[in-house]
User: What shape does this take?
Amino acid sequence: MIKNFLTFKIFILIIAFCLIQFFSTNSYGVDPEEILQNQKLELRARNISKNIRCMICQNQSIDESSAPLAKDLRILIRNKITEGNSDKEIYKFLTDRYGDFILLKPPFKLSTLALWLLPFVFLLIGIFIVFWHNKKSKKI
Amino acid sequence: MKKQFLIFPSVLFLSILLIFLYLLIIDRNPTELPSTLLNKKVPKFESESLFKEKKFVSSDVFGEKIKLVNFFATWCKPCRDEHSYVKRFSNQEGIEVIGINYKDNSQKTISWLKELGNPYSNIAVDKNGRIAIDWGVYGIPETFVVNSKGIIKYRHVGPITKKIYKKINLIISEIE
Amino acid sequence: MAPYLGNFLLWLSLFFAISQFFVSKKNKKSKFITISVIGLLISSLFSFFLLMYSHVVSDFSVLNVFQNSHTTKPLLYKISGTWGNHEGSMLLWILVLTIFNYFIFKLYNEKNSIFVSKALETQAFITIGFILFTVFTSNPFETINFAQADGLGFNPILQDPALAIHPPLLYIGYVGFSAAFSISIAVLTLENNEKISWSSYMKPFVVAAWTFLTIGIAFGSVWAYYELGWGGWWFWDPVENASLMPWLLGTALLHSLITVDKKKSLQSWVLLLSILAFLLSVLGTFLVRSGILTSVHTFALDPSRGIYILAFTAILGGYSLILFGLKSKKYFNNNYFSFFSKEGSILINNILMVVVCSSIFLGTIYPLLVEAFTNNKISVGEPYYNSTVVPIMIPAILIMGIGPILSWGKGDMLKTFKKIFPSILLTLIITLFIFLFYQSYSLIGVVGVVLAIWIISNNTIILFQKRSNLSNGMIVAHLGIGLLILGITGSSVWQEEKIIQMKVNNEAKIKEYNIVFKKINEIKGPNYFALQGDFFVYDKNKNIITNLQPENRFYPVTNSFTTEVSIHTNLLRDLYIVLGEGNLNDGWIVRIYYNPLVVWIWIGALTIFLGGLISMNNNLKKLKYSS
Assistant: This one.
């Protein structure tokens, strides 16, 4: 019993420690000359880019693609970041011109409500089925 | 209740197939994107004009008659292929064709147009591609139809083919 | 000569399929049905070989060979070129259908002739559908009249050993589910089959299908990893999803078949699953070939083909699902089992697999739905699947550790905890070690590593305990999943990348490695020219590790460029280097990736495959003894 409890405490401590240490690894820039000096801003640029679809590639983000349009958009995003625009404003700028298609993470809208909610609904239905089956079969 | 529940999978399945059937039957290009600028005003921009001394100012250019806007470049082969159709449009009464030279060398463009003929009443130079981004252009050549009030009515991505030529003419006849 | 014979044999196979369909209605293992089954197999086999022959000898009078081949293609790719195009791949589908058809036929014994005949009737119907589609819309034996000196060549990216074997493995998977489907239909249609242990018939097919689907998907991913140039191996591309969905349902089916076998529980559920698994396989075929969406994977776009497959899927799906709706009631039973039991954990696994599959299905078709109902187009990319699929997989993996050791009916919690305690301890200790050593934490990384070690330690301990009541195949396959998760976590969470401009003799540092750009070479291959970079990799002690040689290739025949990545692999990480654009004066853009633990993805997949093979072997033995 004592052994179990000690292990449990250590376990909790480790998890807490890991959670505190939560940070992602460094990533270096895309094209050498595009990289912003400010690391924080560059990270923002990378994260936004990873969510923007390369329109002329197949299923790639502009962060990964070597296409010219991808590069232009990467530079545009970095310019807008350094000019002080928020992530939201930058996304709006892009979707105003290219539509929601350019976002790899589908937006939260009325038309995508089903898309985002249904997986949870499926999960709930699944859990319900497990309980229902259990209840029903217990009676017998 | 149970029977209805059991029929549900087949109903769901067949409805999904019907939607697929619908998508197959309509005339659609899976790679083409609908423009977000449809029925909106032309994006405001200013740039150098290729031939004219005066700057190309969008508010001066759009809003008089029906204009076609053609994004093109000398290094783009499909642009060359569609050029005869662009010329045909420029010869039509009542419409003008505006060219936007995308990420190109101006000298090369001038020779290219000399060789193939210049259908454009005015050409804006888009050296860094920002004008194209403002128009939501992603693959040149792209052609837009703008009505006499400066509202974008149609966009086609890719070279103009016989089919598209007819389609654009149809659209032009329907708008003002 | 060859194409005409091949075409004749294709029509002959149609004849045999139709005859099998009608003769099977006689409900016995007659001479006629034997002739139909064997005839179907042989005619489709030879038809396939004749297409392959045409490719190998570069017979350009055959349209299919002309469009997809070239005299300079290496022999291996001439062979694999047979199925590397739409029409040829349909011929492969048909061949595998006839092979599985034969195995269904082999199930015949004195007691089950009505049952097996019904299954053969269904299988014949499916085969007829595919052959009709092939001969009328996608005939590979079409000839052209004018003599051609050479073919139109073949996409150089596809000239690859992993990609060559990828389709046959996948098709064994998809078609294997057709056999399970046919067996389900037989169960649902026939009234009097209490004595038939149909689940023991279904099992070997499901295990075979699942096993080969696993390795087929893995080959596709490993190809994407070393071919596409940015270290990714899964893109949630619609066609990739189309292979993953049957796999998920297959996993569920694999597990619930056990409860049917042992406890006669979840029977109607299993019948539904096997129908859905095959329907998704056929629907996947539709997605790839119909032109409804584009992807790197899609074959030529042709809506008329799409309409045919859609109609065929509708018939199969409508019939099977309505049949299920009407007839499955008698397979409902209410055997009680608690959550905390083997059946309970299997049911939970099934639910989670189906939820994940439904989410992936939703994400894949949602853009099409939006397009159909609004004027808008949206994308559903990786972020969506990461938010929906990954969280659900976590409990599934956790349960995977406990499920196998739970007892049937009702498990004893204390007893189970005692059994599992060594694994929990081992997991914690090893995880602690890893993070002390590796010093880089992120929440999802920790979760991934804990899950991986949990599964690996569980199954290694079980292996050492040599429990005779647990199937070895299962243990090995589960172990493989643990290794797979380790690889997935490492490569996704801790990948590092460096992109710099390098001239000859420049150096770059990544992690503890020093990479020197020694030389640039011009080389010539069998059907390409290439610019090759010579990069020497040194560790922190200045010892040379390897010489990486990425290339940029030009294939004159198709006028296309490819980049060939160069990779150095060890158990801890991959060093992955790509040569970008450049020239002698300015230097080249070089992309260097440090991908931790990637190799464990492939080792894991192979281990799963091995587990599947062991299980197949055991199932076949059992089947022989029971009949």
User: Anything to note?
Assistant: Confidence is low (pLDDT under 50) at residues 10-29 of chain A. Residues 33-107 of chain A form a domain with the Helicase, Ruva Protein; domain 3 fold (CATH 1.10.8.640). Chain A touches chain C through 56 residues (CB under 8 Å). The CA atoms of residues 56 and 67 of chain A lie 8 Å apart.
